[in-house]
Amino acid sequence: MNTDDIIKHLKLQDSNLDFYKRKVERLEQQISDIKSISNLPNSVDLDLNNDQYSKQEIINAYNKMLKYEGISKDRIGGLIIDTFIKFLNNTHHSTNEK
C-alpha cells in the first residue's frame, strides 16, 4: 500500500467513527428519553377560560360548533363524540341487554 491509500483509508475510518459517534449519542438520548418518559407532563394546556364547565355549557359549545361547521345536530350517523357520550350514559344501542 502506498502512502496516499493509507491516508485515504484513515480519513474514511475517521469519517465512519464520527458518523457512529453521532448515532450512539442519538440512541443514548432516545434511551434516556424513554427511561424518563414518566417524568413528562401528561396534561395539555387548552387555554380554557374555566377549570370546569357544566354539562349545559359543554352542550351549548358543542351545538355552536356543529352549527359553525355546517353540521346538523340531527344528521344521520352522528359524530364520534355523540357515540362517546352515549357510552358514558350507557345509552348506546350496543349496551342494551338482549
Short synopsis of the structure:
By secondary structure, the protein is mainly alpha-helical. Helix content is about 60%, strand content about 0%.
Topology of helices and strands:
Elements: H1 3-35, H2 55-69, H3 80-88
What attributes characterize this protein structure?
98 residues, 0% strand, 3 helices, mainly alpha, 2 domains, elongated
Q: What this model shows, in words?
A:
- With 98 residues, the chain is mainly alpha-helical.
- The protein folds into two domains: 3-37; 55-95, no CATH class.
- Helices cover 58% and strands 0% of the residues.
- It is built from three helices and no strands.
State mean pLDDT (0 to 100 scale). 79
Tally of separate helices: 3
SS-based class: mainly alpha
According to DSSP, the number of beta strands is 0
What fraction strand? under 5%
Catalogue the unreliable spans.
none
Shape: elongated
**Helices and strands, in N-to-C order?**
HHH
Q: Radius of gyration, rounded?
A: 29 Å
- Which percent bin holds the helix content? 55-70%
Number of domains: 2
